[in-house]
Design brief:
Rossmann fold; 6-stranded mixed sheet; disordered C terminus; globular; alpha/beta
């Protein structure tokens, strides 16, 4: 069984107040704070995922560098574009109780693809604990995700529902590329391979 270790940069994108920072906090330190804090520019967090692939006789320790990007699009400047550089996956978040945040999802995706190319990612419908207050039909959410070939995950930073799952799906996207490159290679068991912020 060979062991590989990588560090990869991922982005959290979406309008302000959709719960991106709360999702990161829940994932990284298992803590929810219902006080809304405007993210200034970006903030970064880190957490390791351990994924096992018995068929390839490989384990991967994946250190995620999570960049929580400014949510106010009118405050997005050319300087902020540097925050996207080197990202290899993303979670695009909207608030299921806020129709406008879903309507802006295509704009966020277009910005991302313009700066990072067609990298894989996850669409996260957050605040799924607020059933009865949803402003977007599930059929519309699923149709859009399918049209972009993105997995749709319904999350709640408050209850923790599918928070780990959304980041794990991103990790699996990243590991697919790693396995394709290294699983058949001559790496010795226990050897570490680092990809810092997306660099090979």
């Amino acid at each position: 069984m060979q062991a590989l270790e990588f560090e990869k940069k991922i982005l959290l994108l979406g309008d302000g107040s959709v719960g991106k920072t709360s999702l990161v906090r829940k994932f990284v330190i298992d803590k929810f704070d219902d006080k809304y804090i405007v993210t200034i520019g970006t903030k970064t967090s880190r957490k390791q995922l351990d994924l096992e692939y018995p068929a390839q006789q490989t384990t991967i320790k994946l250190q995620l560098a999570i960049w929580d990007i400014l949510g106010q699009k009118d405050g997005f400047s050319r300087a902020h574009q540097v925050y996207f550089k080197g990202a290899e996956s993303f979670i695009l978040v909207y608030d299921r109780t806020n129709r406008a945040s879903f309507d802006h999802v295509p704009d966020w995706l277009a910005t991302l693809r313009g700066l990072c190319g067609n990298i894989p990612g996850v669409l996260a419908g957050n605040k799924s604990d607020l059933e009865g207050q949803f402003k977007v039909a599930e059929s519309e959410e699923r149709a859009w995700a399918e049209s972009e070939r993105m997995p749709l995950v319904y999350t709640s930073a408050k209850t923790g529902v599918n928070v780990e799952e959304s980041f794990r799906r991103v990790g699996e996207f990243l590991c697919e590329k790693i396995l394709a490159k290294y699983a058949a290679g001559p790496e010795r068991a226990g050897e570490k391979k680092k990809g810092i912020f997306g660099r090979k």
